[in-house]
Structures are given as C-alpha cells and as structure tokens.
C-alpha cells in the first residue's frame, strides 16, 4: 500500500553534510521524493512537532537542539513508507541501531541521532501538515 512519511535531517545531520547520503539511502531503497525543504524551525514548531514528548526530562534539550540550525524536511512516498523508513533509519538510540541503518552508520548519541522519521501513518499526516501545510502530501502524491 502506497503511503507517505515525514523524514527530517536534524541540524547535526545538515552540519555534517549528511543530507546527500541520507537521500541516497531513501532513493536506493526505492522511495520516491515527494517534497523537500531546507529551513530553520522556531521553538513553536519544534514544540508542536514533539508535543507528545512535552513531559520528558529531555524536552528542553530536544527543542534547543532542533532549533540550533537548519533542518531538511522531506516527504518520502512508497509501499509501507512509514515502516520502511523506520527500518532504514534504525533504532532511536544509535547505540542500539544496527550497522547498515542510517543511525547505525552515522550517529553516536540519542540526543543527536541525525534524522527523524514518523512513527505511524497518523503522525506522518500530522507532521507533513505541520511542515508543508495540510494538503501538501495529497498534492505531492497527485503530481507524481
Ligand atoms: P526522534 O525519532 O526524532 O523522536 C524523538 C526524539 O527524542 C528522538 O528521535 C531523540 O532525538 C530524542 N530523544 C529520545 N530519547 C532521548 C533522551 N533520553 N535524551 C535526549 N533525547 C532523546
């Protein structure tokens, strides 16, 4: 079933020049790029994006990190896009991420884990709406 997922290269990934390698992995896996935007995000957007983590002790650190430099926001499309993206991204904690996954190969620390991928089709829809405006996913899908 073709679906879309939201993927974001975080500020440390952008600073380290990893946008290209990350895009390559998604293309090699078979995904289609439906939208891409290099942009800075403000505290309000970071707090909305990670709203469900508001009570976590690391929330403040997470928001500061996300607003520390530009991010690369993307919509990737394909069969079971959400699950396939999570499988090539690897476990949240890079210590546990298998080599061959993006975090397994490029990241050391959970607070700087390079990339974010939606964890369910409903969060993909919500996150695509936050970053690209609601309807952006459908428009991108219709044009491909
Ligand atoms: P992400 O997949 O973007 O979703 C939530 C993020 O919270 C996660 O990646 C990590 O970057 C961050 N995170 C999760 N656990 C911790 C933690 N213990 N300390 C700092 N950041 C964390």
UniProtKB/TrEMBL annotation:
Q: What is its main location?
A: cytoplasm
Which residues bind ATP per the record? 10, 58, 86, 92, 103, 113
TM ranges are: none
Nucleoside diphosphate kinase-like domain: residues covered: 2-139
Gene Ontology terms for molecular function: ATP binding; metal ion binding; nucleoside diphosphate kinase activity
The record's listing under SUPFAM superfamilies reads:
Nucleoside diphosphate kinase, NDK
- On whether Cell wall biogenesis/degradation is a keyword of this UniProt record, the answer is no
Q: Gene3D superfamilies, per this entry? A: Nucleoside diphosphate kinase-like domain (3.30.70.141)
- Tagged with keyword Transferase: yes
- Keywords of this protein's UniProt record, alphabetized? ATP-binding, Cytoplasm, Kinase, Magnesium, Metal-binding, Nucleotide metabolism, Nucleotide-binding, Phosphoprotein, Transferase
Q: Which reaction does it catalyse?
A: a ribonucleoside 5'-diphosphate + ATP = a ribonucleoside 5'-triphosphate + ADP; dZDP + ATP = dZTP + ADP; a 2'-deoxyribonucleoside 5'-diphosphate + ATP = a 2'-deoxyribonucleoside 5'-triphosphate + ADP
Q: Which is a GO BP term held by this UniProt record?
A: CTP biosynthetic process
Q: Where in the cell is it found?
A: Cytoplasm
EC number(s) per entry: 2.7.4.6
The protein's required cofactor(s) are namely: Mg(2+)
Record: active site: 116
User: Main role?
Assistant: (Microbial infection) Catalyzes the phosphorylation of dZDP to dZTP, when the bacterium is infected by a phage that produces the substrate for the synthesis of dZTP (2- amino-2'-deoxyadenosine 5'-triphosphate), which is then used by the phage as a DNA polymerase substrate.
Say which family it is in.
Belongs to the NDK family.
Task: Quote the subunit structure annotation.
Answer: Homotetramer.
Q: What protein name does the entry list?
A: Nucleoside diphosphate kinase
**Organism listed in the record:** Paenibacillus taihuensis
Its gene is ndk
